[in-house]
User: Fold this.
Amino acid sequence: MIKRFRSMAAALSAAVVATCLCVTVAASSSGSGRSSAPPVSSAGELRIANVLAGMTLREKVAQMTQADIRYVSPADMAQYPLGSILNGGGAWPGGERASTQADWMALAKAFQSASEQRVGSRVPIVWGTDAVHGHNNVRGAVIFPHNIGLGAARDPVLVRDIGRSVARSVRSTGIRWVFAPTLAVVQNPRWGRTYESFSSNPALVADYARAYVEGLQGELRGPGDVIATAKHFIGDGGTSGGIDQGVTEADEHTLLTVHGAGYRAALAAGAQTVMASYSSWSDPASGDDHGKMHGNRDLLTTVLKERWAFDGFVVSDWNAIGQVPGCTNAACSAAINAGIDMVMVPEEWRAFIENTVSQVERGEISRKRIDEAVTRILRVKWRMGLLEGVSARPVSGDAGLQLTTGQDRDLARRAVRESVVLLKNLNGAVPFSRNARVLLVGEGADSIPLQSGGWSVTWQGTETSNTDFPGATTLLAALRKELGEANVDFLAAVAKGQAVEQYNRIIVVAAESPYAETAGDVRFPAPLSHESRYPRDRENFDAVSGRGVPVIVVAYTGRPQEMNHFLVQADAFLVGWLPGTEGEGIADLLLRDRNGNAVHDFRGRLPFPWPLDACKPASGGNAIPVGYGLGISGRRTRYFPLRQSSSVTGECPVESPGVAERR
Ligand code: BGC
Ligand code: BGC
Assistant:
């Protein structure tokens, strides 16, 4: 076994040398690519060196190890001086989803004080969490629109404010590290993580990367600051066919400039950590298969750390080291040698520590490499104020921060308002009068889980109900509040023959079911068509449309996808994306004020092309272009190329998916 590891490692490093890419995009091509994290003073570097010098090899390896709270307890800290913990999606204190802010804080304090009292290395632990649209694992936190909606808003100041709000919310639970923002530049909306991406436009991703990191990190050590993670490095949004954790086929220039755009900006804003991508990279131009990103020294070390001067640390993704050839979830010298500094080994962290210590003792990983990784982790902790006296760092310094304030809700409501994209509006269907009687149709009209999507209380965003989101407002609740209970009726499902004559407007909510990561992939040859994936929504729509009452469709979707039937037949069509807990933001756009005036115009613009062909959603040809979106006073009222959809039934023809579809 040991022998196999050694020869694998040797073979791997030989392979790296043989296929060594010659990185041609130099940092000098854009001054903004260099990291602008605050310099560490010489006293700081001395302190870091002293702390490192006082650590045993085992303590150093433990410092590089991150375990999930489902598999580690504060008591373990005495024996294993871990550097970090995380709560993966749907991990809550004591496994209790109703945990309060105080429960989260109590667990954070328990881990922190255990890490400070242990024998040997007392470097405080840092806890990371996926606060990707608000502090979304915590019940009662405000949930912001997923990134795709923020991309539609085109408002970096809004994004910075959201970063500040999320950071305060996270700190209110004693947590100081956020695995966001995702900087994927998604090319194919079949990918289940499309909603985590701001846009297919690298320039927009770069602007937002900067703003988001600034918002989250603030000054790094203030009471409302957290450290950010630029993820997933690099090319996660470019995989062929939009397959999660798949292969990004791109030449080096495209990889670094398109998929790398957000990283250059995030580093310029001082992002302290970068998460490696599960995906692989292959270059069709040169024919080189560079393999899994977690084993790619050229990109993780030569490009990111050396050329782009990133001096924080690189964290691996959940059990991702196990996907590198020759590795397991609990042992991977190739990843560490490639440049992974902190290893997310949620479950098998004990075995990982022992295995890694042995690998160092056997010479598979150099002591120098370990020291370099630990120095990077300590540098970030120093910047956070964690290596100074105890008084500078207690989690109790976060006391007084609230999980959610009224201001956070107002900010999220504004974000919703800014993110909605109006694709069609005939005869002033929206906004409408406050005297209207309204029928709301579709389960999504009264469901915070459907408004929020994946990464909401649970990892997948499933197995939850409205009670998991105290303080949230559905679209139904928002309209009832504004128009009066008696004027808004709701039916989760309707059948032909439904009486509609008494209404002035009918709103049909069409909603994707929540998903996260691989579970959200819609792989070729399945058509990327909402109406074929969710026939119930089409039935609802058909039951009420064409009956003389204007029908407005509101789509809750984590991706642009073919919805031609609705677009052709509806009077108005609003893309709501995944707006989160503040449904009032949508009501704000739908309603006129008491004097009959429109209050808020629609300012959302498509952040991705909107496909009109369910079998070619990635080719961009037959699509409503990026940047499209109507205002209520705009001249364009209808997008011209729309014809009656020939809705795909069954699978897409396999013969000619087209290059873009496969990529
Ligand atoms: C995801 C990451 C996430 C991590 C921790 C992984 O599966 O790819 O984005 O930060 O889990 O939950
Ligand atoms: C965790 C997620 C993680 C996923 C990866 C889940 O159990 O809760 O955070 O991303 O596993 O497979």
